[in-house]
Protein 1
Amino acid sequence: MKRTLGTCYYPEHWPREIWEEDAQRMAELGLTWVRIGEFSWSKIEPKAGEYCFEWLDEAIDVLGRAGLKVVLGTPTATPPRWMIDKYPDMLAVDVEGRIRKFGSRRHYCFSHEGYKQECAVITKVIAERYGKNPHVAAWQTDNEYGCHDTTISYGSSALQAFRLWLQEKYKTIDALNDAWGNIFWSMIYDDFDQIELPNLTVTEPNPAHSLDFRRFSSDQVVRFNRLQCDIIREYSAAPLSHNYMGRITDFDHFEVGKDLEIATWDSYPLGFLEDRVGTTPERQRAFARQGDPDFQAFHHDLYRAVGHGRWWVMEQQPGPVNWAPTNPAPLEGMVRLWTWEAFAHGAEAVCYFRWRQAPFAQEQMHAGLLRPDHKEAPAFAEAREVFKEIQNAPVVAQAQSRVGLIFDYDADFAWAVQPHGDGLSYFGIVFDCYRALRSLGLSIDILPPDTQDFSGYDMILAPALMHMSDALKAKLSQTQAQIILGPRAGARDAHMTIPVPLPPAFPDLDVTVSYVESIRSDMPIALEKEGVVEFYREHLEGQDEIVLATEAGEAVAMGNHNIVYLGACLDLEGWKSIISPRCELAGIETMELPDGIRRRACGDECFWFNYTTENYQMDDMTIPPAGVIRVVGEVSK
Ligand code: GAL
């Protein structure tokens, strides 16, 4: 696969007269891809059943003739206004029971049968028309499932579908009562039709009820997406994709990914920094114009796994965005750095969002490659530079890393239902671990929990994996890799119940979690080595060796020569204290990288990235601020 560039374009936003020139300029810039169509439903079908395709025929033709390849989006993230008259109850309902009205986007409930039928029809009409069009080289289903908190709806369509889902899962109401533990607080049901959605209860609902509702909501996204995929495939052989997001974890992306050829994601490093990354105000200031040095990389690795190796950045931030708490401009060079970082992690394409800044509507304060007056915005020159550079490094490297990190959406649902302390989240713990691995100079593969073959990994980490199937435990215990588990590994069974024997109940480990506690953020506990325990810890008993202890000598991690069980949340130094010695046992070389200097090795390439505002001196190399260095040859992984 080749490294390519692209952009997101909205022909329906601009007069017909400028399309040709736009297409020409895209081609001259070196772009290969142009994504269009994903919000254009009201232009394609202005009235129910009345289609207007001439403009789209022409737009695809103009772009194609300029040598560009089109990624065509299905427009189902923005149903037209007339649809709401037809199906007033298709709108989603929030947790407080309020209707989420028309007037922006993503105004639908994944469970509404009428809306799904409409989606099937529009997808079929579009796929039929463009399925064999030589310029349509890939598809995108919908746009950013889950964006604006839209995975979960508490309306009547969701309720009906949830009851059916439960019936299919449990068969009898007694089995459900049993699995959920409904004897507690007299919550026993006589019939599936008595079950409500888990909102607006007097105090917290049964966690098993909430977890099943999250699983159901995730399944609805998978089904919604599959409906479109099955239709498009009847008419087109081009690959299918969906653009996922940063730190949106409320549906199982691995399951959606099974129906698609390519995973893409939308990378807004500055947009994410203040309220998605979860970092301190000091670091937010330090990286305000660069973005968090690990957040993009984490998602690159995650979506490489979701896409079974094939992934893109579908939307790359090119300048200030409009939607974060504050919206600074990137440091000069960062657009180039972000683009190269994606390529270093195996991206086949990086597409900039958007071609031209729109002077109207919600995103008028969002930069593009062009300004509203058609002149070049600062990112244009950086994209041009990358295009020149990829001529000399054209091929996407694919290579397995030595370190594997398991990521499980179901564990995220379980943590969300029962975090046991403010600020505790599954994503947060996994990301802390990932940051520690990166600051040790390591390259990482993220792995789904149903990975069948762990061979080739010398270290596998499974932090915070709340429920572990017996199959996964068996597979992990059979590998030769160093394994690090916990905290809260196997802490619940599939129904959100504490298992007995008590966790982690892992083969060959003589460690038991006797009880757990969350701790105040201002009461960290010092470790005997570098770092602290923070927010959460487990009390461990058993015969295995204490691998890491507090200053007071209490066990924080226990295990044997191959497996470690970690019973705590740790800060960065703490994570490194547990990971480094295990790397040594696995024969994996580590290095201490300063915050903001990052490295990624893949194939015979090794990349260095400087996310800081200072020069970084390394042996005989200086990496300037926002600098990227690519070294080719034998590299240590
Ligand atoms: C993405 C979305 C785009 C655009 C962009 C603005 O979340 O897919 O349509 O809204 O954000 O940054």
Note: The longest helix spans residues 207-235.
Protein 2
Amino acid sequence: MKLTHITKKYGETVALRDVTAEFEDGKITAVLGESGAGKTTLLNVIAGNLPHEGSVEGVGKVSYLFQSPKLLPNLTAEDNLKLVLVKEDYHKIEYVLEKVGLKGKERAFPRQLSGGEKQRVAIARAFLFPHDVLLMDEPFSSLDLSLKKSLISLTADLWRERKETIVFVTHDVHEAALLSHRAVLLRRGELFADVPIEGEPPRDFFAHSGEEEQLVRLLMQE
Ligand code: ADP
């Protein structure tokens, strides 16, 4: 997947300025940057949701995971998942719900689930929705630490099984270092650094790698 000379303006605000980047198939790329850097805008450009200058190639079908779960309140967990599948694929639901630790909650409505459980249904849905690329916008930001740890390792597990192309937006350097093969850094709409991260996710949640330190330094550099 390739972005070439992407510029996106909202009126006078330049949200992205001449961004060129490649995203490798079968790998996880983190898009890092502070609030307002243009991360969500970049994800929406990849998703094809926003008019922009420049070209986007090789995206295919997109599945989009938001920061909040956005489940339909009048449908059970299982029925929320059925919504994104054709009938022949309903059998996949049981496996994925087990994978996200929600076996036994199939019939629960969103109001009967905790915030973390709802986000797990949303992760299950994002993986089940047929796609070539999975885009995730701050999927773990609103979660407490232990839940964050378990959902990051869950996402890494699901990636390991399927070797999907994932682009994931975060302002959290630790998350990026744990879950990605590479981080691209945005500042005021410009892509200013591209950092490969050694090894394969999942990584040790309690460790802080050299790359993580490098990312912190880059982000804090004016
Ligand atoms: P991030 O996801 O890194 O926080 P965004 O992509 O949301 O950044 O925003 C980048 C810039 O574009 C910010 O200055 C933001 O205020 C502006 N922006 C984002 N969405 C809109 C919009 N719909 N209308 C006007 N300005 C927007």
Note: The mean pLDDT is 94.
Protein 3
Amino acid sequence: MLDKIDALYEKFKTDINSVSKQADVLNLKSEVIGKKGSLSEILKSLKDATPEERKAIGPKSNQVKSEIEKLTQKKLQEIELIEINEKLAKNKIDFSLRNSMLERGLVAGGEHPVHQIQREVEDIFTSMGFDVLDGPHIEDDWHNFGALNIPETHPARDMQDTFWFKDMKHLLRTHTSTIQVRGMESRKPPFKFVGPGKVFRCERTDTTHEMCFHQLEGMMVGKDITVGNLIYFMKTLLKEIFKKDMEVRLRPGFFPFVEPGFELDIRWKKPGPGESKHSGWLELLPCGMVHPNVLRAGGIDPDEYNGFAFGLGLDRLVMVRYAIEDIRHLHSGDLRFNKQFAKF
Ligand code: DAH
């Protein structure tokens, strides 16, 4: 009987090599170790066996059963793998494609340097407790001018060449100061927020002017806010951006929505040869203490609260950081330019 079991096992080992479908493998297995399989047949004649044989047959048949189980599982896995590979070949899925794309430089898009700097500045301000607000590109007269203490007759309107809509009531916002107005409308003091975004001016373009560029507006309103607070936040921002303490100076500057208004300049050395020739003060950040009329227009009592505001030019910041000489590169869509800033 033991020989018969051995022979049956040997036969199974050869037979399993000749099948290639999972169903055939399972049939083969049940033909041998299934309820009505050949092993059960052999075991039926156990009663005729000698006592020694009987002792050996139990362990033997168990061992053969488990070997056959193992071989079956192994074969099923092999078949599954072959089937997957056949499917992949048929559907032409090429996993090496991604690598070859990377080698050819065809990578996923990266973030534009203006966006990168915008996120950095947002992070710096949120870490100091500022909210980040958004506002529409298409604005009305009130949010772009009126509420900012720039009445219709005010000469400041000439400072900003505006893209007006035909109705002459709507316009493409000329600055992110509109977000100051919307921020005041939507919250109660004390508050502090920044508002980044695109702004539009109907201007002839040159190395420092574009029709569409990016600003980040900032506003802090509370009790007893001083120019000292303003300088502290601006210096912290610049230190984080340029990774070192920056020397700054405030010059008087006129903007109808702040009183007093300032131009904040940084001491800047242009990198490259002839450094000293290019060092000097660079106008970077107009700012000031919020005009009482602006607070009033935003529904805030200027006798109780005051604050500061600033308008940071993000494109200018990118140009300073990377020593880019022409703002038009930023909007050129030239991948040779953009790729230099991709972070992968
Ligand atoms: N909105 C001004 C502009 O685009 C920039 C500006 C100046 C914003 C002074 C401010 C500020 O918040 O206080 O020319």
Note: Residues 175, 177, 217, 255, 258, 261, 286-288, 309-311 surround 3,4-dihydroxyphenylalanine (CB under 6 Å).
Protein 4
Amino acid sequence: MTNGVEREQWGSKLGFILAAAGSAVGLGNIWRFPYITGQMGGAAFVILYLILVFVIGYAVMMAEISIGRKAELNAVGSFRKVKGGPWVLVGWMGVAAGFIILSFYAVIGGWTFKYIFASFTGLMQAGAAGEAGDYFGGFITNTTQVVALQALFMVTVVWVVYKGIGEGIEKYCKILMPALFILLLVLIVRSVTLEGAEAGLAFYMQPDFSKLTGEVFLAALGQAFFSLSLGMGCMITYGSYLSKDTSIPGAAAQVCVLDTLVAILAGFVIFPAVFAFGLEPASGPGLTFVTLPSVFSQMPGGSFWSGLFFLLLFVAALTSAISLLEVVSAYFIDELKWSRHKAAVTMGAIIFVLGIPSAYSLTGNLNIAGKGFLDAADFVASNVLLPLGGLFIALFVGWIWTEEARKEITNQGEKPFGLIVPWVWICRIVAPLAIGYIFFSGLKW
Ligand code: PHE
């Protein structure tokens, strides 16, 4: 209860899972996962990623949800309420990460807009002629258009957050996420049957462990946190709307599995095609946007499928972006008593402005010590702030708030969780050591 009124809650248990999965599944799975995998050398990275998701990611996700559900507040308020002191800084760091991630996320979200329409106006021809890369290059260097689309994306996000939890978020996830999933399956069939696809499958599935460097470890950790929406209080905020009788371990497991499945499937679409079309797997953030048009151009009704796919990708990006803005807004709403309207609109506008340098950096003209501005923002958020946030959250429940967390996770003992003891030890020792070690050995600009 806040302000004497009942705090909003998800309409149902399914509502939470859909919304949390909606937050998790997004550009991180379909845009970021394939291109990072491509840069980090393929299968060995993927295996590492899977281990990190299911050992550390799952544990931190339960920790976040339990803190949020107990406190029924935003990321900062939750830490203040359950413990206070310096722990509040962890919440702050999360809000900061939310600002940064959404600023560049909206730029890529804008790309999906462009590609929905471009599917019917030239994208397929470019793909068929092997010129999807030129098409993409031409598009991202037209900064005015990229910024206009970024603005459009932000307006959509603000509009949904402004309308509130139940109606705003749940409604959109229920039909469109399963559709995205099915479309990915169809695309896999097309991609793996292309001539020359085997090399892509080998890249994606035959690990070469000599490729595992400190940098690869950190990239896998950063990708795990980014993709699961962890380390910044997003799952604290969403957990705060979760009903008291839902099983946290069950809900968290479903979210982790769904999110990972979508990423892995996206890889099965992208890599066979990358190799079949002779593209470069390590080419960076354009990978998905260059590869897919070529795949679609090889399908009957390609324009239609392409339009549909980018529409669904747009929706997936939107549900993730909503959760990012929700973290930021919930802070201003709960702590500073702003209206939802004011919080969403003001923060949306600030984040939009913050994202303009990222949009502009795609021309190659805005670098910070050798990294493009967008890359740099992504690096700071995903490889520094999120892992650090996860580290502190794990330490917090592992050492400080352990008994409370146990109670919350087992619903006051009513729903025993068989892995509660390993979970405590992962939070206490395994996750902090692993994150700390990876962080310090892999941190390289
Ligand atoms: N998980 C989202 C994605 O994969 C991005 C995100 C990160 C959302 C952090 C919320 C918090 O696209």
Note: The radius of gyration is 21 Å.
